[in-house]
Amino acid sequence: MEEKTAMPSLEKLVVASSPHIRAEETVDKLMWQVLVALLPAAVVSVYFFGFRSLVLMAVGVASAVLTEALVQKALGKEVTVADGSAAVTGLLLAFNVPADAPWWLVAIGAAFAIAVVKQTFGGLGANFVNPALAARAFMLAAWPQHMTGKFPVPLDSVTAATPLAILKGTAAGTLPSYLDLFIGNVGGVLGETSALALLVGGAYLIWQKVIDWRTPVSFIGTVALLTWVFGGKGGLLTGDPLYHVLAGGLILGAFFMATDYVTSPITPKGRLIFGIGCGFITVLIRLWGGYPEGVSYSILLMNLVVPFIDRWAVPRVYGVSRARA
Taking the complete model, does pTM exceed 0.85, yes or no? Predict the structure, then answer.
């Protein structure tokens, strides 16, 4: 008796590029989880800096989402603002401005991040640097008077220099305590002041496996080690690593920007190298550069070498030498 084998219809076969592993994660789900993780820092910012910080965050998100919709519509593309990626960019950008920044500055910065840095290179997945950080660098160059100098002090009507500027000696003032740094009761930009709120959000992302622990741990660990060795005024091994970790934008950058899927390595070893590189450049700028902070520029510079890191760190095929692989 002849055995018949069922043949699939050719119309049902789909030809697509790799990877072919199906997973439950989608862009929408990942981006909305990032927004949830940023919520504690947003709430703390509103508590310390008042209603104006909520306005700036709303302007950043609205400008980013509206710009993405308009650009995609103008280019005849599918409008994908519901995936949450533009909202994440707008919120992160607002986190990088002081509470007294004008609203138009945030609106222009968010539009620049989406229209120039993201959509010009093909949209989500095609940009080679982090859009929010590139926009921050643009705003810093174009309107430095609004991005640097004195920052509003939480729960007060005065302004003061950031803790890193005081620590570096480029500004006068009294260094806040470790506790104030940890909870966020210090002058700075909206989203980077509270280490506690950012760590809660970062732990949530690692727990949900949205991000890999290797990048933030190697980033923060490198900064702690190098500032302890070289950051003290009394010579080697006299630095204050805890202060460098808690002050500035290190925790915000390590958990929420250096881990960007598009602009960071895909291999475990590559993520360690990326984090160490970010930490090394951050310390170079903080200790010997002309700027008290260095997180943004370190991530942007390391974004540029991600293709080389991924090529070098690709796992070796079992039984084949690296040269032949």
Answer: yes
